[in-house]
Amino acid sequence: MIQFEQLYKKVLPVLQSKMEEMKYYEYDGISSEDLWNFCIQKKWRKQKVEDLRVYEIVETIYAIKPSEIVSHFQIQQFHSANWFSDVSQEELQELLKPKSTNEG
């Protein structure tokens, strides 16, 4: 779901232009919605998006470096990944049980 959909539609040509630039530099896996959500979550997180002027939004979008958005999505992947999804409950308990020490 796109937040601030009217504003998104207004700046969609700018987002698409930025996407073309990113494709030129071979960053293909990012959509205009991803770019928009990145701006909302990272660039404007301390601001009211509805109070931003269109030129400020355009300036922010054009100033984004491809490495910024790639890093953001990599960090999101690390936070959302379930590292133990392929491990059964028994295997997980076996992995996490305390190591026994046999002194003797």
Ordered list of secondary-structure elements with their pairings:
Elements: H1 5-24, H2 32-43, H3 54-63, H4 66-80, H5 89-96
Helix pairs in contact: 1-2, 1-3
Pfam families: Post_transc_reg
Protein name: Post-transcriptional regulator
InterPro entries: Post-transcriptional_regulator
Could you explain how this protein is built, in words?
- The protein has 104 residues and is mainly α.
- 62% of the residues lie in helices and 0% in strands.
- The chain is elongated and about 70 Å long.
- The relative contact order is 0.12.
- The mean pLDDT is 85.
- It comes from Ureibacillus galli.
- Pfam families: Post_transc_reg.
- InterPro entries: Post-transcriptional_regulator (IPR025716).
- This is Post-transcriptional regulator.
Give descriptors for this structure.
about 0% strand; about 100 residues; mainly alpha; elongated; single chain
Determine the N-to-C terminus distance. 63 Å
CA-based gyration radius = 21 Å
Summarize the biggest pleated sheet: none
Low-confidence region ranges: none
In N-to-C order, the SSE pattern is HHHHH
Helical content class: 55-70%
Number of helices: 5
Average pLDDT over all residues: 85
- Structural class of the secondary elements? mainly alpha
Strand content: under 5%
* Shape designation: elongated
Beta strand count = 0
Protein name: Post-transcriptional regulator
Organism: Ureibacillus galli
Summarize the structure.
The protein is mainly α. It contains five helices and no strands. Helices cover 62% and strands 0% of the residues.
